[in-house]
Amino acid sequence: MPSALATLYGHSGGTLPAALADWEERVDRWCDEYVRDFPDADLSEMNLDLAVFQFDHAAERVTLAYALSVHQLMCRDSGRMRGFPNVNASVRRVLGDRAFTADKGHFLGHASGGILDINLFPQRRELNRGWSDEGKRFRSMERHVAEHPGTFFYHRPLYCDGSWIPASLEYGVLVDDVRWWVERFRNI
């Protein structure tokens, strides 16, 4: 059975770049680190043709999302987004005095083909909208991915507790199939 990465590239008709030769080992290492930090984790991989999600069923949260960027698949479904759980109530309940104003962030950006549902999480508003220096860097990376269809990218949330609110986010972009551009961003 082909790997999720091979399946992704198979759907796109593209060729797997040499820079991804160790991708499966990297994912395995990240999964091992996650299980070491959260021993009750129940991880599975969900291949959605255009994207792959690692999901912890015990904590009900995404632990990794990766894809090849495509042109935006559909118009933003504002009604459906409004119906999504109130992320600010969740953030206030979990973080109390450390709460931040949250947006419904996308692990895989909407403009680069990201879907709803599993792809949504509470994200600091100034990061998501590019209002801070960190946010400007984050939005620059997202723009690059959206403007270059076929770009491999990943988003890895890093958690400090059992909630679905990532403490920080690691965002990686494979530029021109050769060079990694990886940044970490505070989310709490």
Walk me through what this model shows:
- This protein has 188 residues and is α+β, with helices and mostly antiparallel strands.
- Helices cover 31% and strands 28% of the residues.
- It has helices spanning 4-12, 23-37, 78-83, 87-95, 125-128, 133-147; strands at residues 43-47, 51-56, 61-68, 102-106, 120-124, 152-158, 168-175, 179-186.
Low-confidence stretches: none
Number of helical segments?
Answer: 6
Distance between the termini: 39 Å
Overall shape: it is: globular
How does the major sheet shape up? 6 strands, antiparallel
The helix/strand order is: HHEEEHHEEHHEEE
Give the total of beta strands.
8
Structural class of the secondary elements?
alpha+beta
- Secondary structure: helix percent: 25-40%
Strand content is 25-35%
Give the C-alpha Rg.
16 Å
Query: How are the strands ordered across the major sheet?
Result: 1-2-3-6-7-8
**Overall pLDDT metric:** 87
In short:
By secondary structure, the protein is α+β, with helices and mostly antiparallel strands. It has helices at residues 4-12, 23-37, 78-83, 87-95, 125-128, 133-147, and strands spanning 43-47, 51-56, 61-68, 102-106, 120-124, 152-158, 168-175, 179-186. 30% of the residues are buried.
